[in-house]
Amino acid sequence: MVVLFATFMVAGCNKEDDLIIVTADFTEFIVENQVDTAYINPIEKSVTVFVSDSAAMRNVKVIDYKVTNNASLNPHIAPGDTLDLTEPLVVYLQTRQEYMWIIKAEMVGVNPIEIGTITIQNMNFDHWYLQDDKHWYPDKDLSTKNYWWDTGNKGANLLGPKNPTSPETGFVVSGTAAKLHSTTVMGVLASGSIFLGRYVKTSGLGAELSMGRDFDSRPVALKGYYCYHPGIVDKVKSPYGNMEGKKDYCSIYIVLGDWENRVKIDTNEKIFLDIENDPHIIAYAELSTNEDSGSEYLPFRLPLEYRDDRIPTQILIVASSCKYGDYFTGSSNSVLYLDEFSFEY
How far apart are CA 212 and CA 196, in angstroms? Predict the structure, then answer.
């Protein structure tokens, strides 16, 4: 496995026009024999690319990379070029300013069983698809290959375009982020949500969901960035009536399991996943908070707690601006931003 890191600093400006700051970041970096999606940390300005042990550090072949704001790379690197990363390599991303990046490699042995064979699409939430000028999907399109994520937007859109979950381009870590903004539909709470799986149908005032996607590895943790602005709970249902008037909570959680089929959730019929007692669950981790994040994204790391040594067959990743939104309890003003999810192995 090869691990690429990148750090930067901004060089000085000599021209008056250069006082306009135009930043430059890597948003994608792919090398030969890569076995998982690259992890890019734009806050620390780091890039981590995972490849197989067969890749030699002095001969790392670049497949593709992407940068922001049409930055040029000096020295130029093109797809197909090979990099000698036995020593740190200094490159510059140039816009109106010049950003120095130090790229270096580290070879680490990896157990293929832990990495697995399935790569989840759109973990950085850069791709979005608008169906019928009405429903936003956090996917490149709705083909079998690209339809990985879904939301509760279809249920909220019954009376007209109203998407509690939508793309965010102005406040991001990199590229595009997901904005989960709770609202109400016919007086009922509609929490902003995003999950691996599919929205099946509206069920009464709730929804039937088919949760999960095929997965066959055992990551150590789920990582990413979030920013949360909790509202005051103004919609409640039993058994959470005591939350009215208090600050709302958000939730981000991951579950690995060995179910034969997708997990059925029906919020109207009160059919939910039993985290504590479901024998199919192999590992679980959650972030839940009612603290306001302020004006910046916060990094998170959810270390998975494994219950045994089974290999999973499915994965659930779920996030909501109202933790108890499935129970129609929360604030109609809570906002949760998400960006740049990745796995740590």
Answer: 5
pLDDT digits over 15-68, tens only? 555 568 888 888 888 888 776 667 776 776 777 777 665 456 778 889 899 999
Q: Which of 162, 108, 100, 116 is nearest to 136 (CA)?
A: 162
Assign residue 132 a region: left if phi > 0, alpha if psi is -120 to 50, beta otherwise?
Answer: left
Residue 205 token pair: 């005032």
Tokens of 165: 């979950």
Three-class DSSP labels, 245-283:
CCECCEEEEEEEECCCCCEEEECCCCECCCCCCCCCEEE
Element of type H or E holding 291: none
Is residue 322 within 8 A of residue 228, CB to CB? The reply is no
The one-character DSSP state at 19 is G
Kindly state the greatest CA–CA separation across the chain: 65
How many Cβ atoms are within 10 Å of 290's Cβ, its own excluded?
A: 15
- Does residue 327 sit in helix, strand or coil? helix
Among residues 53, 78, 116, 63, which one has the least CA distance to residue 343? 116
Q: Which residues pair with 30 in a beta bridge?
A: 64
Let me know how long the chain is.
345
Q: Kindly report the pTM of this predicted structure.
A: 0.70
Q: Is 155 helix (H, G, I), strand (E, B) or coil?
A: helix
Please measure the distance between the N-terminal and C-terminal CA atoms of the chain and give it in whole angstroms.
11
Give yes or no for residue 319 having a pLDDT over 90. yes
How far is 300 from 305, CA to CA, in rounded Å?
A: 16
Phi, psi dihedral angles at 70 (to 5 degrees): 55, 35
Residue 125 CB neighbour total at 10 angstroms = 26
Angle ∠(145,147,153) on CA atoms, nearest 5: 170
